[in-house]
């Protein structure tokens, strides 16, 4: 299984949209994909029509599990979505209480890693959607993944948010064996607005090593797809937003395969 997290401390930048779009495309390509919602607001969970106030099995349960984990207990958290091959561990609002409830518990930052280890052979990919705040939920996502996607809206305030996120990555790297690779994904790009054009230029100048050279354009079809409860690639396969995510995915998969090749040769 390959684990990718999608995170940015800034809200409304396209994290959940990226999670669903990339997950939907991977599932269509025949990969077995697990989405994990770690956001107490549960946009990803609501996307697939689950009511986060009425779920008894969710990512919250991962945090309550202690000792030796039972793979079947972890499997019982997995829900279906509208798409074959695309499964979901949903969120509940109770996730918001974890920080307070479990404060100081040993291994709290590794709960998601440990849960996913039980499902290692069940899926090809796990994609973790996170809340826009630095806390134990985001720390779990960053500790569990081997690749981080950082969607950044192409507007002026975005760069400040991105700088905060980069500081978080640097902090997490201090406790990881190897540096966490990350890819900045410019989103909601509107070439007709000066703010989009100039902020994309600034991002490319300032973060050239980690930025995906293309961008996701503004595309109202994402909102329509979300209303329909379908990944954008199912809703509008030829949409320009879908094409952008498909190009991103192609690059990420190629990069990952190359890394795996290099590792095998070491
Ligand atoms: N490329 C895009 N073009 C147009 N609208 C978009 C695009 N990407 C996302 N959106 C819309 O913008 C809104 C915010 O997107 P999304 O929920 O993915 O952001 P988020 O980062 O997950 O937000 P939060 O921090 O609240 O979890 C949604 O209504 C979504 O449909
Ligand atoms: Mg979200």
Question: What does it look like?
Answer:
It is a single chain. By secondary structure, the chain is an alpha/beta fold. It has one domain: 3-Layer(aba) Sandwich (Rossmann fold), CATH 3.40.50. Helix content is 44%, strand content 13%. It contains twelve helices and seven strands. The longest helix is centred in the last third of the chain and has 26 residues, at 240-265. The relative contact order is 0.18. The model has no long low-confidence stretch (mean pLDDT 95). It binds adenosine-5'-triphosphate and magnesium ion. The site of adenosine-5'-triphosphate (ATP) has 19 residues, from helix 1 and helix 10. Residues 15-16, 39, 43, 129 line the site of magnesium ion (MG).
Architecture blueprint of SSEs:
Layout: E1 2-6, H1 15-28, E2 33-37, H2 43-47, H3 59-64, H4 71-75, E3 79-80, E4 86-89, H5 98-101, H6 111-117, E5 125-129, H7 136-144, E6 147-153, H8 158-173, E7 182-187, H9 194-206, H10 221-228, H11 232-235, H12 240-265
Parallel strand pairs: 1-5, 1-6, 2-4, 2-5, 6-7
Antiparallel strand pairs: 3-4
Helix pairs in contact: 1-12, 6-7
The structure holds adenosine-5'-triphosphate (ATP) and magnesium ion.
Write a brief structural summary.
With 266 residues, this protein is of the alpha/beta class. It has helices spanning 15-28, 43-47, 59-64, 71-75, 98-101, 111-117, 136-144, 158-173, 194-206, 221-228, 232-235, 240-265; strands at 2-6, 33-37, 79-80, 86-89, 125-129, 147-153, 182-187.
């Amino acid at each position: 299984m390959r684990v990718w997290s999608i995170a940015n401390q800034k809200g409304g930048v396209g994290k959940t949209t990226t999670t669903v779009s990339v997950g939907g495309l991977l599932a269509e390509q025949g990969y077995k994909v697990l989405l994990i919602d770690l956001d107490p607001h549960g946009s990803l969970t609501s996307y697939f029509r689950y009511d986060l106030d009425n779920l008894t099995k969710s990512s919250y349960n991962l945090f309550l599990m202690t000792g030796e984990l039972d793979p079947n207990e972890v499997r019982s958290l997995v829900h279906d979505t509208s798409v074959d091959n695309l499964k979901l561990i949903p969120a509940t609002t109770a996730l918001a209480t974890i920080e307070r409830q479990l404060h100081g518990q040993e291994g709290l930052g590794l709960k998601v890693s440990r849960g996913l280890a039980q499902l290692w052979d069940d899926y090809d990919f796990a994609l973790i959607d996170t809340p826009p705040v630095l806390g134990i939920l985001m720390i779990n996502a960053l500790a569990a993944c081997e690749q981080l996607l950082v969607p950044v809206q192409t507007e002026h305030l975005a760069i400040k948010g991105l700088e905060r996120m980069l500081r978080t990555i640097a902090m997490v790297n201090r406790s990881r064996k190897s540096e966490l690779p990350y890819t900045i994904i410019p989103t909601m790009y509107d070439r007709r607005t000066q703010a989009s054009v100039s902020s994309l230029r600034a991002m490319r100048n300032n973060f050239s090593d980690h930025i995906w050279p293309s961008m996701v354009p503004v595309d109202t079809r994402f909102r329509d797809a979300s209303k329909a409860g379908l990944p954008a690639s199912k809703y509008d396969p030829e949409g320009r937003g879908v094409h952008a995510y498909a190009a991103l995915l192609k690059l990420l998969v190629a990069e990952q395969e190359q890394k795996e090749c290099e590792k095998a040769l070491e």
